C-alpha cells in the first residue's frame, strides 16, 4: 500500500471542509486552480464536487456529509440492504444506499433537467474525464465518506484500475462482512479517524458492519495504523482522563509556539 503524503492529506481535508456552507473564506483559494462540476440535490445543496486540472491525471470527487435532521435520521436507519453492483451484490447500510440513490439535478449532463440518482449522474459525469485518461480519487467526510467508499468500489468494478485512491474522514462503516470481503480497493483506501470521534464507531451493531481499507488514527499528535476498535476506545478514554495532567507537558507549549507569531 502506498503512503498517503502529508500534502495530499491536507488538500483532501480542506476540500472536504469546502463541501459545507460554513467554510472559512480563507480555504476557498484551494479550489482556484481546478476546473469543477457541482452536482446538487433537489434542494439546491451541493452533494458532490468534481475537481480536476488539465495537466494532472487525478480527478478528485468530494462527497458532502450530513446536513440537517433528515440526513441524520437517514444515517440512523442502519439496517442492512442489498446493493446490486455490476454482476455482484452485497449488504450495506440502508441509509448510505439511500444516498447513492438520492436524486440529483444533473444540469451539467442533462438539458432536460430531470432528476436522476447520484450514482447515475456521477457515473455519466466521470465518463468524459475517463476518456481523457484521468484516474479518480474519491474522498468524503462522515456519511460522505461512506458513500465515497461505495461509489469507488462500484466504479472500480465497471472500470478496473480507474480509481487512484479513496480517502475518508470520520467515516462510519458502510457495509457488512460480505461487502468487506468483496471490496476491491483495500490497498488504495485510507480511513482517517481523529481521537474519540464516536461516528467512526458506528453503526452500533457489533460484528455486522465492517470498515474497509487502512485506518490512520490521529491521536495525541501521533498517527497509529489499524488500531483495533477496543484498543482505540481504551486509549482515547485514558487520554481524556489524563488530559489535565498532559497539558502541563513541555511539548504542549512547544506545539503552540506558532501562536506567538501574531503577538
UniProtKB/TrEMBL annotation:
Residues 61-205 form the Fungal lipase-type domain. Gene3D superfamilies: alpha/beta hydrolase (3.40.50.1820). This is Lipase. CDD domains: Lipase_3. It comes from the Bacteria. InterPro entries: AB_hydrolase_fold, Fungal_lipase-type, Sec_MonoDiacylglyc_Lipase. Transmembrane segments: none annotated.
